[in-house]
Amino acid sequence: MERKHLHARTAPSRVSAGFSLLALACACAQAEEAAVLETVEVTGTNPSLEVERVEVALTPGGVSLIDMERVREGSVSNLADMLRYVPGVWSASATGNDGVFMSSRGSNLDAVDYDMNGIKLLQDGLPVTAADGNNHNRMIDPLSARYAVFARGANAQKYGASTLGGAVNFISPSGRDSAPLTLSLSGGSHGLLQARATAAASGETLDALVTLEGKERDGYREHDLQSRQGLYANVGARLSSGIDTRFYVTAVQNDQELAGALSREHIAADPDQAGPNAISGHFQYNVDTVRFANKTVWRIDENRSLEMGLAYEDQELYHPIVDKIMVPIGGQLVEVFSLLIDTQQRDASAMLRYQHAVGEHNWLFGINYGDNSVTGGNYRNDGGKRNGQSNEIDNSANTLEAFAMDRWQLNSDLTLIAGAQLVSAKREIRDLNLSSGTLRNPRADYSSINPRLGFVYSLGENGSLFANVSRLFEAPTSYQLEDEVSASDETLEGMHGQVLEVGSRGQREFDGGSWNWDASLYYAQIRDEILSVDDPDAPGTSLSSNIDRSLHAGLEALVSASFAIGDSGALSLAPLLSLSLNHFRFDDDTVYGDNQLPAAPEYAARAEFLYRHSSGFYFGPTLDVVGERYADFSNTYTVDGYGIWGLRAGLNAAKWRVFAEMKNLTDKEYIARHSVRDIAAVDAAILHPGEPLSAYAGVEWQF
Known about the structure:
The protein is mainly beta. It has one domain (18-702): TonB-dependent receptor, beta-barrel domain (Maltoporin, Chain A), CATH 2.40.170.20. The protein contains 6 helices and 35 strands. The strands form 5 sheets. It has a 22-stranded antiparallel beta barrel. The longest helix is centred in the N-terminal third of the chain and has 16 residues, at 18-33. The protein is globular, with a radius of gyration of 25 Å.
């Protein structure tokens, strides 16, 4: 029975509208500059960030606020760099490029090479994740955000998400909070060169911002080139004293070669080589994206506000991923399978939020709606070129998320948070095999009501205690339905379960410094978790099925401090530790018993210990300590843990900044990412070596 390869998914061409979009955004910025009535002074304070900190303090569970000003103190070449210190999140790039695996609280542990479900991505409150729940085609460029909020697990319900991993909301900069002109240049090892230019203007009623970026990278392995160009622009208008609207345009062309996975024997011989057939099959992952969005905010009065938004995104994916498989038939070698994906994905979404403060209550009502289609097909692969179509794909999905939440201030110390979410989703797969004429057409409707109850208890100015119990629900993605184990019109059940979470966050001042903490302990019982395992008759292909019961539990902690040195107050030591302890297992499964789920390590600690001076200078080591993990569901193949050191230094001045960073100082060999099998053979080519000794530097100017 022919099945799709594990990596096989959707496909691109080129962004034809890029220059016209750039012209439009620049015209908006220039028109606004002509009407400038005031100069924007960029300072260290960020009012929006302070509002988000208040929001985090009122959440009865794990939420991380990611300030890009701090993230940019080191090298940022992909989303994993941005998420480095978010506890509970395991994120890694296979070869250091934009292909990032991301898991939160044990989400997505089987699908390390495709799909990327379990975490909802949003930009400015509008969904970027496709309506079927996958993030396969595009990750958000972290440097295009001013800051981000990662609400883990059920704590993402305020965004309408109920996924196992939660949601990340990336907030874009605007002409009102940016310098008139910002230029940045960074680069270093493995041919990395990144350049960005941002122009911003602000007046009494209009503001505009446009960013152009380019990235080139050779990579530290064979067949690992990356070339990316991007345009990020937005124009805002103050329609009245209480109404603001903003239009967003994004265009990204990202072309990546894929180095492929290696076996242990390959790595021992040469960890920099490409995987078997990666060069002859010219494996690539090329995505072109154009996105338009609008968000309008109406501040009705001091107690009421209404937000509404629309977004449309078009993606093209070109993805040669399986080289010719040749089998001797009748004395001749005959190609029996190869794979190149060439499809177009379209996503339309809408968002509505209404907030109303009444007495001791603060109500939030919201709706998300998304509609997704994937058209195109699978082709035979001839060295990275299409060689005849084998399957025609026409998939569709839509999801409606409606939610309500009340923050009830019971007294000066105790806030009760109650909420519920309604999810209604549809999925349909149309996969036509052109040689046989067989049509697979699995389709299903999914719905769930997900309640949530929690509290936040204030400890005064020092911090708070919190707890919540919530229901989780996640409908299958289109790709999971495509790979359903029976390869028929059968469908999958939606994942559902309950999670209990307790924790504390806060800050304590002491003579000469302060320390901050944010810790969560969670325990989730999951039913019908969807996992993809190897087809024993076709290794390297995926079969998706529901697992009766599984457990996801863990400890997430982020601790930081500042200790003054001397009496002047100019010098300080600033340690930081992000710690994740993971317990992800099958629960008395008929096949796997109580085996550990693969891919996520038992523990991961990421730390830094920086010396800081009031002039803006900083210097110090970084450390990553990662425990061992399994590469198969049968727990027979163990990937060793590792510890690597780094070094970071820089200077933040009023109008410019500079940084330098070294990674993996001891040049240690380790595995950054790996594929997942049912039972992984000793010689399986499933490993991606981590980045060797590397050095990077960058500079940024504001004018």
